[in-house]
Amino acid sequence: MKKSAKRILKKARNFALHKLPKNTRHNLIRSQLNLNYDLPEDLVFKIAETEEELEGAFRLLHDTYVDMGFMQPDKSQMRVTFYHMLPNTTTLVGLYRGEVVATVSIIRDNPDGLPLETDFDIRPLRETGSVVAEISSLAVRKDFQMSKG
To answer: Is the pTM of this model over 0.85?
Structure first.
């Protein structure tokens, strides 16, 4: 199946999914999760601390986003956003034998706001004194992804 056909099917599936009642939708999504608790001994999760770990995370993010059609390839072969540069952002990596195989970033609220604010108004949360953060930039190398079945 071509990428464009897959993308259309995915959009149609997501549209239909969001028409379901919330409880039904959440139960259906949870039923699709396949978690493996027997992780390889050589797999370590940690805060990215070195330049190599950050570069590995940004390369994996780039390749994953390009593969999924979320972005066009960049000549740097990395996906680094404005938010990754902020001191309020923490990038986590999954390392397998020293190689980055997974990444996710936690963007804590900051004076520049959060990426989600382009679509959502979170002022009511801030007004109640809630601590606000966004989980972003998730990528897992294909050979470490699991599919049900």
So the answer is: no
